[in-house]
Design a protein that fits this description.
This protein is an alpha/beta fold. The protein contains 18 helices and 17 strands.
């Protein structure tokens, strides 16, 4: 059994029920479990690996509760930089339809590396896009994450229907048949069941768990929604979906069932403690009440909200109702980054914008402690786990250390934990430990070949963008034209 001693930690925030804070502390780990934490009380033992915590701040590893790993190879694409959700998705789908297994693996390894480097030790991923009948693409994600050692909740998402008028737009602008990008209900259920059988482990300290859910609520087929929920419940898994809700979702639900989306989901038994909702950017008070009384949780991705022009989400209102609010970086294409610590800082500030929370003054703003709770304790609640999110005896050995000996933190150490969010310009972890395994030490990435990870991702991006241009005549490196159709884009590309 591997043994590890982290010695002389300058500041230790345990994030436990008592919010224990220790100075000049030690943490002793056996295998994958924290055995002891003390104020410089652990003796040096033979055969124990020692990590020097001098000048460093330790926290539980962050828990990322909403991501789309596969999108990491389509970051910072000019044609996708302007547009709200549906306009952005139009060109995004045009790129993602060209994904192969090697691309998904490259994207997953890149996403995993970036999360580990910025303090994240557990992540969910919500993969819902399986073009051209490639129903098993998610296998590549599980393999990539396992290679690098991240604790992983892989949500086998799905897209049986496509949002709004996207099918017509894709045909007109890109010449793509949207029918090749959606999945049949039977294929989805079969693939979800197979993913559970192959990857789900609900034992304590498990490194791999499975969840399911549609990318948007499938109002057209309530039986399918019930089947997904039943499968997750029977397998000990979770359900997840995006739920803004958008005006078109509200309209469709009203036309079909004469109610709003949350009311309908409650009526069909889809909301409980095993369900989480991403974004909640347009939730009203009644909808938050529904989430609260059914014990569900919500996850926030503030960078994505700003990137795509969403309204400020009612995260404070959710918090005040006792709803667990957690944090997710969201996809690489809707954030352009997988910086977990950076996402925490954005979470701290975005909810202070005037007008974002009517009736909320500065006394009700979230503070650094609450943000870290969202990224640790609440993240664990969102994923229905009681073995991560805190640093105390008997918990998983998932922790991160940040060096505080940096100019950006000078003069800010009256509140070291707050300094991580309010101050500094370096979001890179000094040390990241997952399940007792040291994956980053003294800023050195030990989990894999970082240069190869970067090269593979760049190669996948270049291949996909070339295929898009070959198929559509559109150069994705150019900024989107507001009124151009496919023919005009083709002519412009030919001239250039």
């Amino acid at each position: 059994m591997e043994r590890l001693l982290i010695k002389n930690i300058r500041y230790l925030y345990c994030m436990d029920e008592e919010d224990t804070f220790l100075e000049n502390a030690d943490i002793y780990i056996e295998g994958n479990v924290i055995k002891n934490r003390d104020e410089a009380g652990c003796d040096l033992l033979n055969g124990v690996k020692v990590i020097d915590g001098t000048g460093k701040l330790a926290l539980p590893g962050f828990i990322n509760t909403h991501h789309h790993f596969y999108q990491n190879i389509t970051r910072n694409i000019p044609i996708m930089q302007k547009g709200n959700l549906l306009g952005w998705l139009l060109y995004s789908y045009g790129a993602w339809e060209n994904m192969e297994e090697e691309d998904v693996k490259a994207a997953a390894r890149l996403a995993t590396a970036e999360l580990l480097m910025t303090g994240c030790t557990t992540s969910m991923d919500f993969m819902y896009f399986f073009p051209h009948g490639k129903h098993d693409l998610m296998d590549a994600e599980f393999e990539a994450v396992k290679e690098l050692g991240l604790r992983f909740h892989g949500f086998r998402g799905c897209m049986p229907v496509m949002e709004g008028n996207l099918p017509a737009e894709m045909k007109e602008r890109l010449g793509i048949d949207a029918g090749s990008l959606v999945e049949s209900y039977d294929d989805i259920l079969d693939s979800c069941d197979r993913t559970f059988q192959k990857y789900h482990d609900d034992s304590r300290f498990s490194m791999s768990r499975v969840g399911v859910g549609p990318t948007t609520v499938v109002f057209e087929n309530p039986e399918f929604m019930k089947e997904l929920k039943k499968m997750a419940d029977n397998r000990g898994g979770l359900c997840h979906t995006h739920l803004h809700p958008r005006p078109d979702e509200i309209k469709k639900c009203g036309e079909l069932y004469n109610c709003r989306p949350h009311q309908w989901l409650e009526e069909i038994g889809w909301i409980d403690k095993n369900v989480s909702f991403a974004h909640i950017s347009r939730h009203n008070a009644e909808e938050l009440d529904i989430v609260a009384r059914n014990g569900a949780s919500v996850t926030q991705s503030p960078s994505c909200h700003m990137r795509l022009g969403y309204p400020i989400a009612p995260a404070l209102e959710a918090r005040d109702r006792g709803i667990p609010v957690s944090i997710g970086v969201d996809g690489g294409a809707s954030n352009d980054s997988g910086d977990m610590l950076g996402e925490l800082r954005t979470m701290l500030y975005v909810h202070r914008i005037d007008g974002g929370h009517p009736g909320y003054g500065p006394e009700r703003w979230i503070n650094a402690k609450e943000v870290f709770e969202m990224a640790t304790v609440n993240g664990a609640k969102c994923l229905n786990r009681d073995d991560i999110g805190m640093l105390k005896e008997g918990m998983a050995a998932d922790l991160v250390l940040f060096s505080m000996i940096q100019p950006g933190y000078a003069g800010a150490l009256t509140d070291p934990r707050g300094a991580l969010l309010y101050c500094g310009n370096n979001h890179l972890a000094d040390t990241t430990i997952v399940n007792g395994n040291v994956l980053i030490e003294n800023g050195i990435f030990l989990a894999g070949d970082l240069n190869q990870i970067v090269e593979d991702a760049n190669r996948s991006t270049a291949r996909i963008l070339k295929l898009v241009k070959d198929k559509t005549g559109i150069d994705y490196r150019m900024e989107r034209r507001h009124h151009g159709d496919r023919q005009k884009q083709n002519r412009d590309s030919a001239v250039s």
